[in-house]
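Justification of computing resources. Each target in the renewal requires a structure prediction run like the one illustrated here; the chain below, 168 residues long, is used simply to show the kind of job we budget for.
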Amino acid sequence: MILTVPTFISVVGASTIANNTNFAIYDNLTEGVKIAYPKDWTLVRQFGLNFLSPKESAADTFREGLVVGKGALVNESIDKLANHAIKFYNSSLMDFHLIESKSLTFHGSPAQSVIYTFSVPNNGTIKTYEFGTTENNRIHVFRYTAQENKFDAYLPIINRMIDSFQSK
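Resulting structure tokens:
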């Protein structure tokens, strides 16, 4: 299956990674979710759907990945929810640094993206791309987390995964 990918964050020269990755489809009617993910990634169903990259070596202590979560729609706009999240992260994450926060549209619905870094002992600086939207009376949150020096390498795969997402 070949997917057309509008890039949410572009990385020069990195798009060939996503094009050379074999994807499988996770399709669960009960959860109302369909998403493409790399075949060699691990799927863990805990606090949403967690797609974890393979370990790069036996010494690899941090697996980059995407968490897909959903919740009931509340009476606040997606940008207000993002502002609440930013305030929470600022007070709870070590060395939190907001890089970007912007409004956009995803599948015709309002969306908000946030990029930030924070520190994790023994893993260094972690860079996160968090993306939230409302669709089919639900809130969907996508959280890509990577070690900062690996963020750009995995980003094309994450963009392709997010673009393939369907809420049923």
